[in-house]
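Record 1 of the preview.
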Amino acid sequence: MNDMNDINESDAADGGGTPAATGAGRPAPPDFRPAAEAVARLLPAVTDDGLGAPTPCPDYSVRELLGHLVMLTTAFRDTARKELGPTTDTDPNSARPVLDPDWRAVLPRRLDEVAEAWSDPAAWQGTTRAGGVTLPAPVAGMVALNEIVVHGWDLARATGQPYDPPQDALGVSYELLAATGDDDPMRGVIFGPIVPVEAGAPLLDRVVGLSGRRPSWPR
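->
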């Protein structure tokens, strides 16, 4: 993530291509709510018997994916609020996710909270921290929204559910992921190797491929 910081520092400063803070000539920050709601709609159909099922994340079962979602929504809520501490300074790869026993109540609440936190224009100003790395706030916001979108797809696929995230959120994910080629140090750290998809494929499939996943998973 240090490299993402270096690459995007100037873009964040001048408005670049990132969804930076509102102002003359700058786009409004994206609304996290529709993406968060798309993930929340998946949760009631997740059964206790299915928690051990595999997911498109090779190292995660459904249980661990849900634990990761609880962790990341908590962390990026605090990143937006600039309430820096253990949640924003811990490497998410430092330990395997442990699912909160009360996740059915906790995760929907965290999804609401992260969406609310990034609805504040101040969240997109200046710098903040995520995963122990200092980032321009607009970059952190893009990463946060992408994590929600892509892991929502992971959960939908793992539990056999339809998934229809908003197009504007997919656009943010595409912009972020398309900027990291196969030789980028981010590959193998938080993104897998790019999986090629047809140029005319739906935007969701292109985002999934750029994230290092096979849109046809589990095939």
